[in-house]
Every structure is written in structure tokens, then in C-alpha cells.
Design brief:
Helix content is about 15%, strand content about 30%. It has about 160 residues and is mainly β. β4 and β5 form a beta hairpin.
Length: about 160
């Protein structure tokens, strides 16, 4: 039996606060080849998840918020925000399924946000064309500013991104 509880959360949270990416996951599945990928992820405010989609190997993603809060953002091909959904462990919505092929990201609202992520396997790393060309790559100088701008983004708007 695999337990998801306070001890796991505290260990993941401590590690996520320590690492530059501000997020850490624990795999519940045994192998990257498993037909269902199941992860428990602690994400801290300021983590940047470049908007992406799962189009090459069409896969949906399912998220449940066990602690804290996050916002799921969906985009069109041009980078315009098409939908945004607040997830909170104690809120009115604590889970979401993102359809295959849809551009998306998450922004983290509270320290210690703990999510369960489920998606079809096997694990396949995303090809470059499944990362949004209208958003900076993780680690680029512009990534922190882009992530900060996502917090105030309204549906129908895009974050201006200077590729220069």
C-alpha cells in the first residue's frame, strides 16, 4: 500500500523549497513504461511550468489539489488565455481534467500546494514543438517575469513576451 499523507507532503515540500525549480514529484507508478503515470507533486509559488500540450502522443492530464491552491490556465495556439480555473483543496473545485492537445500551465498560489497528477503512460518526454513558442523556456531570463504576468492574465489576453 502506498500512503499519501502528511509525512510525504512535508518531505516533498522541504525539497521543493530547496531546489531552484520550486517543485518536486514522487512517482507512485513503478516504471516510466507503466500504462498509467501517477505522481504526487509539491509546487511552491514562483515555480515556472512552461505552457505546453500533449499533442504528439495525445494524452489528457488529471489533477487533484490535496493542499494549497493553484490556477490552471488554458491557451489557444496564439497564446491567448481561453480559460482559467482555480483549484483549491478547500475550495469549490479541487480537480480538473485537461484534454489532450490543449496548451496549458499551472500557477501556484500558496506555499505547500500538493497535487496528484494522473496521465496515460508510458512516459514520453515532450518534443520541443509541444512547448509553447510564445512562452520562454524554463531557465531563460524572461521566465520569472512571464510566470509573474500569468497571475494577472485575463481571459482573451496574452502575456507580451519579448523574444529579443
Amino acid at each position: 500500500m502506498k500512503r499519501i499523507g502528511a509525512a510525504m507532503h512535508e518531505a516533498l515540500r522541504a525539497e521543493a523549497q530547496r531546489v531552484p525549480r520550486r517543485r518536486v514529484h514522487h512517482c507512485l507508478h513503478e516504471s516510466p513504461d507503466d500504462p498509467v503515470q501517477r505522481l504526487v507533486v509539491d509546487m511552491e509559488p514562483g515555480t515556472y511550468i512552461r505552457p505546453h500540450r500533449h499533442a504528439q502522443s495525445p494524452k489528457w492530464e488529471l489533477f487533484f489539489c490535496l493542499a494549497g491552491s493553484a490556477v490552471v490556465l488554458l491557451f489557444d495556439d496564439a497564446g491567448l488565455l481561453t480559460d482559467k480555473l482555480a483549484l483549491a483543496a478547500s475550495g469549490s473545485c479541487y480537480g480538473v481534467e485537461i484534454p489532450a492537445g490543449v496548451w496549458h500551465t499551472l500557477i501556484i498560489e500558496e506555499p505547500g500546494t500538493l497535487l496528484v497528477e494522473v496521465k496515460p503512460g508510458p512516459y514520453v518526454s515532450l518534443p520541443e514543438k509541444d512547448f509553447a513558442p510564445w512562452a520562454p523556456a524554463e531557465g531563460e531570463a524572461a521566465a520569472a517575469g512571464f510566470e509573474a504576468a500569468l497571475h494577472g492574465l485575463s481571459v482573451g489576453k496574452a502575456v507580451p513576451y519579448n523574444f529579443g
